[in-house]
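Hi there. Long-time user, first ticket. I'm pasting a complex I've been working with (about 815 residues overall). I'd like to know whether the download I got is complete or cut off, because the file seemed smaller than I expected. Thanks.
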Amino acid sequence: MRVPEKTIRRAALMICGLGCVAFLTGADWRQFRGNDVSGVAQDASIPSSFSSDENVAWKIELPGRGLSGPIVVGDRVYVTASSGFRQDRLHVLCFDRKSGDKLFERQFLATGRTMCHPKMCVATPTPASDGKRIFAFYSSNDVACLDLDGTLLWYRGLTHDYPNASNSLGMASSPIVIDDTLIVQVENDAESFAVGLDVETGKSRWKKERPKRANWTSPTFFTDKESGKSLALLQSSAGVEAVEPKTGERAWNFGDGASTIPSSVVSGGSILIPSNGLTVLRPGTGAEPDQIWNDNRLSPGTASPLVVDGKVYVVNRAGVLQAADVTTGSLLWRLRLKGPFSSTPVAAGTKLVFFNEKGTAQIVDASGEEGEIIGEGDLGETILATPAVSGSDLFVRSDKHLWKISE
Amino acid sequence: MNRMRIQAALAPGGVAAILFAAILFTVILFTVIFVTAGASHAAETENLVSQIKAVGAEGNGNEAAAVAVAGLSAGGVDSLPEILAGFKGASPLAANYLRSAAETIADRQLADGAKLPASRLEQLVKDGKQDPRARRLAYELLLRVDKSAEERLIPGMLLDSSPEFRRDAVQRLLDQANDKRLSEKQVVAVYRSALSGATDEDQVKTISKALKSLGEEVNLVEHFGFLTAWKIVGPFDNTDFVGFNKTYPPEAEIDLSAKLEGQKGEVAWGEISTEDEFGIVDIAKSVAPHKGAVMYLTSEFDAKAAGDVQFRFGTPNAWKLWLNGKLLFGRDEYHRGMAIDQYSVSAKLKAGENVILLKLCQNEQEDDWAQRYQIQLRVCDSSGIAVRPVAALAAKSDPRVASSGGKE
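Hi, the file is complete. Here it is re-exported in full:
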């Protein structure tokens, strides 16, 4: 059947139009480090400089602290917080992306332990979304699933179910959604496990024991280009275990150990693991992935590595940003930043955004041969959370506020 | 004959009678309809609340609870008091479903410019038989439509069973104590009053510091209900963490006269006590800085009556806790911090002597921050108010403090 040229033109125009709308409003940023857990919004364009009163579209006071980053779903921004002397009040908040108007707030009482290191808090994990639901997870190992309008769909108390699953310093792992499964790592010294929860019901599709050691890293996933099949990557002090999202069955294992704070990142068929510095794997046809390179000089501090346009960016404990070639591991340049950092950097195109703990963002242009700080943004409040990038907007949460940075 | 009756009925008085009868019938009919509908509505709410309360561990009952939350959330504001009353006996999981429904209804009601049932909410706040979680939620909903409720309700909450209400009441007194017009004697009285309701560490520390600066004595060990005198035996072996799951003799039998085979030779029960203001028993300092070791501590608690209590404690070491020979809980975690009320373990005391046994494990880490070998344990009710043994109760009568096994 021949499709009329007019119809093709109309379809092309419609696709272009939709593309423009998507660019203007911005794509979703549905979980920690975005939809693909890379921390990169390739087509985004954000201001190169801002301050507490420059390029701030809106700023909303939050009812409690949080190291959890905001997420963006459609025209809404969601964020979690915890409050109260015992930090046992768990909040899920939803704001209109354009106006900053609060659309709803739900509160829950923690069913697990809420003790944390003073720097951390119960709302440390970033929530996740599958575009239809919000999954709010907390250090107390409570999981609340709400629809986008705030109606509770299901609730799990993973410490309620497994009473020894806790860490007196607090838990930090942010869950991710793959194949209609919410992957949650609950790893600590006493009762350590990972679960795959059915997004519809909250019931466990699988639960598997994990190394009994405190672990604050977040899961990520690797998608095989040919088969389109995704594997969840669970990092721990023991290494990285790749599992089938729906069954939890192990596909392969990297057992050379890994960091328990910064998390792995996947880019262009490679998995970059904070292990003995940085170790890069490339899953092949064999049971175990091939190790491409390792460099113990590329050792991330708290922030997870970031990969943009074939370069990996690592901030070490001294606050020095190092750029290296993803393919070879060769060091390309170094740049001293003003730290310290808890927040993981994100990229809007080739602009890399580093928020330090004092609330100052340093914007690094990574398009040239050497990295260059092209702007700063001082919000003047403690920032420990990883921001979200969408279209022309940067959403960041400080200890007290949720900010929308936009020109 | 029939025609005559009709005519009589159509006479002016007869018309009024018919109208009256019709109105009466209508009123009765609508009353029946409303009462039936109300009863049906109440029954439906009750049914939905029951579905939510059936939610269990591992996500069991989640699907039914989701349907019930949607049903409740779609309901009118009149169902709010029933939903809040449903908190009674609800598990922590179920209470969160109920809370969500109540918040959704209140949000919608207020967004529509309508009112919340303030007087019914206030009634619920004041009703001590209702669940503290529901009373607190009712109070917070009430505040959204009546800010003056705080002034009216909080001052009377100093000895409330809800720690959140008590905290607010204590804070009001702390603010009051800063009033420069008060005499020193009045300030002391205000702080003493505040201390009677305080169980949160930050507030107690603030009050204690203020009272001491005014020359007053404060006994925090008594206030919190810390156990400060123990029998102790050890060390037993915990190299390579073998001790946590190993059963040493004190777990089988507590014989205070026994000589036992320890890690480095024969060991016997001794005594350990503390003068620490916050009841911290320091094994590293008072006994020895054992490494790769297990120590057992035991204490007797003479309860006035049987009842539910909580053992709340802090330790940077791995531990197991038994009451009257029954293992309550254990945790294999080392040096992840220590805080007052770090752990909370529910237990049931029997009337009379109760034997508490603690197993405290130290690892072999050499870092400076991994040398603490300590425990700080108290007995309290579910809201954090100290539960004291008979001897302490006899020594001092304090109406605030719960007697062992229940409040006075």
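A couple of notes from our side: Confidence is low (pLDDT under 50) at residues 11-24 of chain A. Helices of chain A lie at 5-25, 158-161.
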